[in-house]
Design goal:
Elements (H helix, E strand, L loop, with lengths): L13 E3 L13 H10 L2 E7 L3 H17 L6 E6 L11 H12 L5 E10 L7 H17 L4 E6 L2 H11 L5 E3 L6 H9 L2 E5 L9 H9 L5 E3 L21 H11 L4 H16 L6
Parallel strand pairs: 1-2, 2-3, 3-4, 4-5, 5-6, 6-7, 7-8
Helix pairs in contact: 3-4
Bound molecules: zinc ion.
Length: 279
């Protein structure tokens, strides 16, 4: 059943800018999840792949979905990249392969990512992370694509790379929880900030304060499903069907109406990914 909430009957056109719908957590009910999404106003979803092993599968998933072209499910888009958690399994050969895939990419591949740096708890391979991250920023520049970035304990290092290399198509810092100063620096560099389930927790004071005060044109919505459960859903699989609840949380924090926030964040997402969905 679709999730019930007070926005359910609205005709919002929401974009989940970060959802791992290709993960096997959705293998049993992916189609049903998509149909539920459409009913609650989630009309487009961007799926960032996290490793070479998932690039072909994502391509097939998107290809299958595009050929079905149904009005009862959201539009799906993808990104190809190497997540910092998986850098140990990748090398320069994989960057070359990624370059080739991006060269002959289909229209539904709209970004490079999920890429970034993660220095949480002394994550291993920090030099390998740096090398593969910079290589992916260079691919984004070469292919004129935006980046979907993952950052933990690494905003200053990521900002340094972005400042040096200047990726012209910008991108999104997903699940942003940095400082206001870092947020402003990303915005200045042409990036948007993704807010998700984190803002549904009252203890996330700093992030909620930022989500409340940053310019609306710098914000996009995301679920990061199946990860990052919302408050009230801890321990359960997260799903893109809950994106309207993130909109609801943001509406409680900000002065604009839900409709204004829905419209603006979707417009921002479409601008970043250069999507033309006719709406
Ligand atoms: Zn992710």
């Amino acid at each position: 059943m679709p999730i019930k909430n007070k926005f359910m009957k609205s005709l919002f056109d929401l974009c989940d800018t970060h959802c791992h719908l290709d993960f096997d957590a959705f293998d049993n009910d992916r189609q049903q999840v998509l149909e539920n999404c459409q009913l609650v106003g989630v009309k487009s979803i961007v799926i960032p792949a996290v490793s070479r092993g998932s690039w072909d599968d994502l391509d097939q998933l998107l290809q299958r979905h595009a050929s079905q072209s149904s009005a009862t499910t959201p539009a799906l888009y993808g990104a190809l990249g190497i997540h910092p958690w998986f850098v140990a399994d990748h090398s320069a050969i994989d960057i070359e392969h990624l370059d080739q895939l991006l060269t002959r990419r289909k229209p539904f591949i709209v970004a490079v990512g999920e890429a970034g740096l993660d220095f949480w708890h002394d994550m291993p391979c920090s030099s390998q992370q740096q090398i593969l991250f910079e290589a992916q920023v260079e691919l984004a520049i070469k292919h004129k694509l935006p980046l979907i970035l993952h950052s933990r304990k690494s905003h200053d290092q990521i900002l340094k790379v972005l400042r040096t290399k200047k990726p012209g198509a910008g991108g999104i810092i997903h699940a942003f929880s940095g400082s206001e100063q870092q947020a402003r620096q990303y915005i200045e560099l042409g990036f948007r900030l993704g807010f998700g389930g984190g803002i549904t927790y009252s203890r996330a004071k700093k992030t909620r304060q930022l989500a409340a005060s940053l310019p609306l044109d710098s914000i996009v919505l995301e679920t990061d499903a199946p990860d990052m459960p919302l408050s009230g859903f801890q321990g359960l699989r997260n799903t893109p069907e809950r994106l309207p609840l993130i909109l609801e949380a943001l509406t409680e924090l900000r002065k604009e109406t839900a409709e204004e926030i829905a419209t603006a964040t979707s417009k921002n997402a479409k601008q970043v990914f250069q999507l033309d969905t006719g709406g």
